[in-house]
Automatic annotation (TrEMBL):
Gene3D superfamilies hit by this protein: Winged helix-like DNA-binding domain superfamily/Winged helix DNA-binding domain
Pfam families: MarR_2 (PF12802)
Organism: Myceligenerans pegani
SUPFAM superfamilies in alphabetical order: Winged helix' DNA-binding domain (SSF46785)
Residues annotated as transmembrane: none
Name of the protein described by the UniProt record: MarR family transcriptional regulator
Domain HTH marR-type: 1-130
């Protein structure tokens, strides 16, 4: 399998995994990932959330509405600037068992990797995360059509 095909297969597997988690929570994969971001980096404004996860402001508002309706987040006034509304995690789901299973299987699958291999993998992921973030910004900022 060539690199492009492998990358496509890996990307699809990651999305499918997060869709399965989202289904358990009653939300989409994008909603699940945004909820995780809010839990790690919140409270934050809807605009900050939109920028962080690559959504339009309108799409981020709809996403927050869905998470709020499930009780996962709440909108609160910013104490420092009462004109701003912040999104704050409220009732975060416990996914520790799901991620413990993933971590256990991943550790077993990669237990023979050397320190040098891990360094290469880590550097690759760091670089590709930057590439993906820049390409997401480019796609979001550029008018165009998928056809």
């Amino acid at each position: 399998m060539d690199g492009a095909s492998l990358g496509n297969e890996f990307s699809t597997a990651v999305i499918a995994f997060h869709e399965a988690i989202g289904r358990r929570l009653g939300v989409s994969a994008a909603d699940h990932k945004a909820l995780g971001h809010i839990g790690r980096h919140g409270p934050l404004t809807a605009g900050e959330l939109a920028a962080a996860v690559g959504l339009s402001p309108g799409a981020a508002t709809a996403l927050v509405d869905r998470l709020e309706s499930r009780g996962y987040v709440e909108r609160v006034r910013d104490a420092a600037d009462r004109r701003r509304t912040l999104i704050r995690a409220r009732d975060m789901p416990d996914l520790s068992a799901v991620f413990a299973d993933l971590q256990r299987e991943a550790a077993a699958a990669t237990e023979g990797f050397s320190a040098e291999q891990w360094q290469t993998i880590t550097e690759y992921l760091r670089i590709m995360t930057g590439v993906l973030r820049r390409q997401t910004t480019h796609l979001n900022d550029s008018p165009g059509s998928a056809t």
